Amino acid sequence: MPARKVTLKIDRPLDIGNVGIEFEVRAGSTLLGRAQITKGGIDWWPPKTRQPRSVTWEEFAESMK
Fold it and tell me: By CB atoms within 10 Å of each CB, which of 7, 25, 31, 42 scores lowest?
């Protein structure tokens, strides 16, 4: 199993307002996708896609039960 790597890109201090926090997720050198955490929820971009898969915090919490 390749080593996983998650990087954090912060454009501002940790107060998440209109600008989110973006994570780049890799398995070895292979990009698995990007996640953006916002005050409204989570957006996930699989590699080579233009539109994210988005969930609200309520939807995310329900899916983790």
Answer: 7
